[in-house]
Prior knowledge:
four-stranded mixed β-sheet, globular
Amino acid sequence: MDESTQPIRRARFGPFEVDFSLRQLSKRGNRIKAHEQPLQVLEMLVARPGELVTREEIRQRLWPSGTFVDFDNGLNSAVNRLREVLGDSAEAPKYVETIPRYGYRFLVPVEKLNGLAPPASGTGTEIERQKPDIASLQPPAGSMADTQATSAPRWAAIGQWSSRHKYLLGAAAIVAVVVAGALPFSGRRTHALTDRDTIVLADFANSTGDAVFDETLKQGLSIQLAQSPFLNLLSDQKINETLKLMKRSPGDRLVGDVAREVCQRTGSKVYISGSIATLGSEYVLGLKATNCQSGETLAEEQVTAPAKEKVLRAVGEAASKLRGELGESLATVQKFDVSLADATTSSLDALKAYSLGREEAAKGDWTTGITFFKRAISLDPNFAMAYVALGTCYGALGESSLAAESSRKAYDLREHVSAYERLRIEAAYSESNGDLETARRVHEILTRTYPRNPGAHNNLGVIYNALGQHDKAIAEKLEALRFGGMSYAAGVISSYLFLNNLHDARSIANEALTKAPDQREALRSFLYQLAFLENDTAAMEEEASGSVGKPEEGDLLYFEAETEAYFGRLGKARELTRRAVDWAERSGYREVAGGYGIEGALREALFGNSLRVRQLTSAPLALSNASEVQFGAALALALTGDTARTQSLADDLARRFPVDTHVRFNFLPTLRAQVALHHADPAKALEALQPAIPYGLGFTGSAAFSPDMYPAYLRGETYLSANRGGEAALEFQKILDHPGVVLNGPIGALAHLQIGRAYALQGDTAKARAAYQDFLTLWKDADADIPILRAAKAEYAKLQ
């Protein structure tokens, strides 16, 4: 076993060293008496430094199920005793921070001591930075894991609904849940497949006359089989792409020769067909796995259900037997095999509605998808994954509050789901809370357990983009594209843009438009952004005009507004923003409307139109209290000097989003720094911005507003105020070096002016003139009355 993944035996932090195997704590070599419960709390905290350890996790560790204790008083006492031992305090914590009502966080770095014993004098001990422990999230024995995804939601691909603004925190692709009953095997084991072979799942032949079985049984079988880490189901996206090559329509039924041809064209090994018929009062279900090259039957199962309500359980029985016949080991079948009826839903009607919702969501019709998922929930209020899918649709529409509410409801039902469903629910819940590190750990487990699952790779890529780890993100997005087809192209394009790799972004875009022309609308926002970076005005106009009357219209109006503002044409930007807000409100997307509006307010503040800002922040805040909208309003007010209102909004952000990664490490540091800068305290401003450094390139957008790289911009302004021109230039150069991150946001243009000011501070007149000329060239058609433009022209004149 790799040592970094082992439980911590010994660790060091600050002046302390602890040996958990011996239950000993010391400070600078001197033993300290510590009771068992405080040590257990400490062990959990140092295993995950910087992360939230919930009160519930601690309860399960210290007081397992069945233990009768006053939990709140017991936990408070254990934490207080730990603080006493460490010389810490709750009011000014150095080591243990309390997150009210949620749990605790360890504040200092931890070194994991991998040696079995302390080193002898004069010898070295291998020490490494402690990595977050994900062992507790691994699927337990007797449970299940991942499943095949539908078309990646546009927000989850860093927004196929809006490439910049329908953020995951709400997180990721709609997935078909995986469950099956642990049932006996048939004695025949052919070992027909390897873990590299692909399976095409064909449609059921339904001769019962009951329409409830149409599509529903295939959906249930997909859920059952996809939990297997051995079997590899071909994605719906790949199937639809192949049907188009066969001159058929996406969604055509896969039966007979059609199923076999799809199997052959995709290089798959087997197609599995199903049937259901009635025999008296019973239902007879059959499954058959056929080699699509030779036509040989590799495995076949038949089961009966005594009544309609027992059919889903029978599907699970047949699927379990078939998995063994196809070569999967008994160990993995037993580990990842939970009955669909027990874990997901026992209602055929609910599963049918869920299946129809997935079909609509796969086409990008989020509103109709919501209707079906709500119906599934009304038929089975305990259908946890229907809540997850509902939250995904809300997230795709930019309605983050409704997405978070759906995720919380799923989270409340997590005790009675399968292992995969629990992981997926916890990921969605973490995303809705903005806890990106927890979401990352869960998705990393999924991609390791199911390395050929496109949805798991795509979702992990989304998380990496959000954390600013774009190299890792593109690797995951390309895996999603490889296994899932062109429905994941939008996410790949967005990640290439983050990396400023326009060549490969254009290549993927052209391939997607050729192979999957039905993805045209989903790609439109990305194609506009790509054309902007390529300086292709005609292509930008084509995408904007093509969006009129379509779901992307609001986003394209917003992007057009950003482009006009980027070139200083503020009057046109205001009109386009107004139209975007009107469109979103008419469409019922209040949070999206708030996001569009708040970008307009922040734009005015950055350009120096302070008198308009208070009025322009009121309407968006009335529409949405999403964290990005509230942050944008607070920053706009801070730029005008309204520090009291800024502080009030910042305090509310901290209270409502205690574990949100972007709130903690981007939004609050930026607001605190801007307030400090207003009070002419650059040292305090720079100190406030320190936590934002590791997340400097992270994608932070949601609900049509993406405040990316604002900490770098503010850090540059702070250095300017401190007359540290060289350091200011470095910060503004970061923005100029990452046009794919800032795109046509206002700071992308203003960075040219600000770096000119930095060069002027250094006395480098030639570079300063060139930078000012770059800015004035960008703004050659700008509205003449913009305050920052008037100031720039006056400063440039002095350099002549």
